[in-house]
Amino acid sequence: MTTEKTVTMLDLAKRAKEASTLLAKATTDVKDRALLRMADLLEEKSGYIKEENGKDLERGKEKGLSKAMLDRLLLTDARISQMADGLREVAKLPDPVGEVVKMWRRPNGLLVGRMRIPLGVIGIIYESRPNVTADAAGLCVKSGNAVILRGGSEAIHSNVAISTILREGLREAGLPEDAIVLVSDTRRELIDEMLSLEEYIDLIIPRGGEALIRRVAENSRIPVIKHYKGVCHVYVDRDANLDQAVAIAVNSKTQRPGVCNAMETLLVHRDVAEAFLPRVGEELKSAGVEIRGCAETRKHLPWAKEATEEDWYEEYLDLILAVRVVSDMDDAINHIRTYGSLHTEAIVTDNYERAMRFIAEVDSSLVLVNASTRFNDGYQLGLGAEIGISTTKIHAFGPMGLEELTTTKFIAFGNGQLRSS
Amino acid sequence: MTTEKTVTMLDLAKRAKEASTLLAKATTDVKDRALLRMADLLEEKSGYIKEENGKDLERGKEKGLSKAMLDRLLLTDARISQMADGLREVAKLPDPVGEVVKMWRRPNGLLVGRMRIPLGVIGIIYESRPNVTADAAGLCVKSGNAVILRGGSEAIHSNVAISTILREGLREAGLPEDAIVLVSDTRRELIDEMLSLEEYIDLIIPRGGEALIRRVAENSRIPVIKHYKGVCHVYVDRDANLDQAVAIAVNSKTQRPGVCNAMETLLVHRDVAEAFLPRVGEELKSAGVEIRGCAETRKHLPWAKEATEEDWYEEYLDLILAVRVVSDMDDAINHIRTYGSLHTEAIVTDNYERAMRFIAEVDSSLVLVNASTRFNDGYQLGLGAEIGISTTKIHAFGPMGLEELTTTKFIAFGNGQLRSS
Questions:
Q1: 0.90 cut: is pTM over it?
Q2: ipTM value
Q3: Facing B416 at nearest CB: one of A244, A392, A418
Q4: CATH number among 3.40.605.10, 3.40.630.10, 3.40.50.300, 3.90.1150.10, domain A9-228+400-411
Q5: Are B371 and A414 a contacting pair at CB < 8 A?
C-alpha cells in the first residue's frame, strides 16, 4: 500500500521505476482498457470519493481556507464524471509509444529510424485541485510512463481515494498498480527527497503557482519542465482590420481572464491608435476591464489609469489590461522581448509581409496571426490533451500533449554492417 | 574583447544572449558565409594558432602532462585543416531553423504548425582537445545559437587563438561576434557562476569524462544534457549467423576500443556458446583482447580470466571484454537493464520475432539488429554532425545533431478566430 506512512520516498520511486519497465511494454489495448476501467471505477465509487473529499473540506474550513480554495477542493458527482470522461477521452487518443517518426537508409544499407518511447517515471507536484490526480495519471499511463503524484496537503484524503481507485483499474487490466503512486506523506521534506532521486525519476512537472515552480526548479537534480507566468501580448498593426482587432483583443482579455493565455498587454501602432483605442476602450470598459495606459494611450482614453514600468511585467490574471502605443512593429517586438514571458503573442494585421515576419521573429511558445491568445492550449491546438504548457525551450516548448511525454530512441536494422576506419 | 580578465561571467552571458537574438534571425546564406570565412581564416592564420598552441604545449610539458595528453593538445597544419573542413561540412548541412515540421488545420479554420527555432545560448564545458572550440562553435552558429565555450586550462592559449579567429569570421560575415564567446578565465569558480546564469544560458553540454559531467550536472541550475558512460552490449542469439556474429563482435570491440560506442560486454545464448565462443575467442585473442568470462564462458575459453560482478558494470575503453553466457533473450535483456548505461545494444539473430522484440524492448539510445555498436555516432547514423551523445531521455536521446540544438514553437495563422466557452 502506498498510503502507509512507513513507506519511504525511495521505496515509492523504486516501485514506480520497476512498474515503468512493464508499462513501457504494454500494448495500446491493455493501456486503454485500464483507462476505461479507471473511469468506470471513479464513477462507481463516487460515494467513497465524496466521503473522503468531505474530510478535506471539513479540515479546510477549520483551517480557514478561502471560499475559492474550498470550491477548488470540492468534488461533486458532476466533477467526478468529468474526471472519468477525461480518462475516456485519453483512451481514444492515438498511442505515441512505438511510433517510428522517421526512417531512412544509409549508404551502407543500414536502415535507421527513430522510435518513440516513454520517458520512464514522471513526478507531478501540484497544489489543491484533486482532479489533477486523475488527469495527470491518465496521460502518463497512456504514454507508457509511471507517475509519482505529490498533491497538496489540503486535498490529501481526496487524492488518496482517487489514486487508490486508479490503481485498482490498473490491476484489473493486468498492469502493475505501482505505475501510479501517490506520496501520501505531505511533509515538505519529502518533496526535496523526491527531487534528489534522479536515478529513479526522469522528469518533474510542477503544476501550480510561480512560487511552487521556482522552488521545485531550484531544488531539483531531476530535469524540470517549467511553466512560469504568461504575460501575453496582442499587437494591433497599422494595417489591422480594426473590427477583427477589437474582437480579438476583447476575447483575449475577457473570455477567461484568470488563465495564463489571457492577454495582459495590448500594443497598438501609433497610426491606428486614434481610430482603434476609443472603440476597444469602450468595449473593454463595458466588460469591466480596468485599463492602465502609457501617456499616449491616455490621450485617447482619458479615463485610463497611468501605467508604471511594473505594469509591463505584470501577469494580472484579472480584468486589468496594460496598453501601450508603439511606433512600429519592431517597437512592438522589442517590447515583447523586454517584458514578455515567451508564452503567447498575437499580431492583428492584413499586411502579409509583417504577418510572416512577426511569426518568424517573435520568440514565444505560440505566435498567432489574427486569432485570440486564448488558443494556446493543448486541446485548442489539436494535441488532444495537455499536461501543462512549457515556457522554457528544453524538451518541450508550449502545450505538452502525449508526444511530449515521450522521447525517441534510434533503431537500426542491418545485415552485418561493420564500421571501417 | 572577451579575453580581458576583467570581463565578468555575467557580462559574457549577457553579450551572448544579446547576440543570440540577432543570430536567430540570420538567414542560412549569412550563417554559411560566416562558417566558410571562419574555415578560411583558421587556415590563413595557422601560424598564429600553432604559436599559441606551442605555449600550451610548453606549459603542459612543464606540468608533466602525459604523452597522450600532449598529443591531444597538439595542433598541426593537418589538424587545423581538419577543423576548417569540419566547418565547411557544417555549412553544407541543411539549416534546421525555420523548418515547419508539421502543419494542420483545426475545425475552426486555424492553421497550426510547429516551427524549428534555436534554443538561444548554449554553454559547452569541455576538457583538453582544442578542436572542440571550432567544432562546437560551428554547430551552434549553424543552428542559430550563441555559444559560451569553457575549455580546459591546459588548452587556453590555443582556445583563445581559435575563438578570436572564429569571431573575426562572424564579424566579416556581418554577424555579431559575441555569438561565440570564450571564457578565458579558467578558474573553477567561473564554471559554478556559469551554471547559475539560467536567465541567460538555455542549455549546458559538458563534453569530457564522467567526473566532469557529474560535477556539472550536480551544480547546474540550467538544463544539462548528459552523456554518461557507454557500457554497450552485443547479444548473440541462438539463431545468429555465427560468421556475422564473430565479425560484429570483433568490430564492435576492436575497431576503436577507446570510445563510448565500443562493446564492453558480449552476451551469448547458451545453445550456441560451444560453437561460437571458441571461434570469437580466437579472433579476439589474436586482436589482443583480454577476456573476462562467467563460469560457463570459461568452460569454452579456459584461458579467459574470471569475471567479477564489477566487470558487468565496467566501461573498459580498452582491449578488455566481459563475456557472459545467458539462458535466453529475456535473460540478456535483463542483464542489459541491470548493468547497461542506455547507450548502445545490438542483437545478432536471424529470428524475425526476436529481432523485432529486441528493438522494441531494449531501452537504449541506439538498438541495432545485425550491425556493429560502433554505428552510434551522428555521422554514421546520417545526422551529418554530432555535438555529443545523450544517454538521458529529456530533450535528446542518442547522438545530437543540428536538430537537437533547436526546439519548436507553435505558430498559428488565423482569420479572426475567437475562443468560445
A1: yes
A2: 0.94
A3: A244
A4: 3.40.605.10
A5: yes
